[in-house]
Write a structure and sequence with these properties.
Blueprint: H1 2-17, E1 21-28, E2 40-44, E3 47-54, E4 66-73, H2 90-103, H3 112-123, H4 131-145, E5 156-161, E6 181-184, H5 188-207
Antiparallel strand pairs: 1-2, 1-4, 2-3, 3-6, 4-5, 5-6
Helix pairs in contact: 1-5, 2-3, 2-4, 3-4
Amino acid sequence: MKRLIVIASLLLTAVSAYGATVDIVFTSFQYNQWQLGYPYTATVNGVAGVWVMCDDWEHGGSPGQEWQANVTDLGTGDLSLLRFNQMPEALTLYQEAGWLLLQTEVTPSTEWTDINFAVWHIFDSSVPLSLNAQYWLGQAQQEAQLEFPGVNFNSVTIYTPLNQYGLGSNGNLDPDAPQELLTIVPEPGSLILLGGGLLTLWRAKRLF
């Protein structure tokens, strides 16, 4: 029953988050090494263990750091709150990053570090790439040329810190400022169906 409550809470957070701000507590890097990339974990509006991907090579942060973030559904195409919205072809770049994040659902975890490096490189060309990371970057760019057939970007959510440019008190870039994070959420229709299923299971359990 406890597990159902946690899942339901996460679903409620996902449904209610769009167009609002959320509280983020960054909780961990993979094996305590930021260089391993996805998945990092965060607590979002009190829901722990949410897997997130960082898209900003210049910002680090550390476990325990807390901040508030704006929430963007990538499927809306609205980049107004996003950190890299001034880059040329910014929507395409974010879609490439979103497409790469979605590949973590269908690829072995051994690919995820290179996928995250490809995402970092999308927004910062100085990020070094292994041959495999170059492959993933090329795949994302190829999908962009095809206009991402069959991809629903509504399942990609972006958490952008309110202080989204991460400037310190001296006006310079603060490397310890909060990151911009991407995560995968179920589609709204799936949320409704799953939520209804959870409620049915809970009622059934109470009857027996």
